[in-house]
Amino acid sequence: MYQYEYVNVTMSGFFGAKSEGHRKIIDEYAAKGFRYVGFIPANMDSHGRYNEIDLIFEKEV
After folding, report:
1. What domain of life (predicted)?
2. Least enclosed by CB within 10 Å: which of 18, 19, 39, 47?
3. pTM for the predicted model, two decimal places
4. Phi/psi class of residue 16: alpha, beta or left (left: φ > 0; alpha: ψ in -120 to 50)?
């Protein structure tokens, strides 16, 4: 069985392609024993650019 954590990250920049702090978040969760699994777009604009993504982490329990 796995425990999942989802962390919302706001994208910035003109093209919505730059996130702030995602590497730090991944490192913090790795230190807690979680593994980065991937991301899900949480909010997109009308041009298909990501405004927010959810980083997904898992940990075996």
Report:
1. Bacteria
2. 47
3. 0.83
4. left
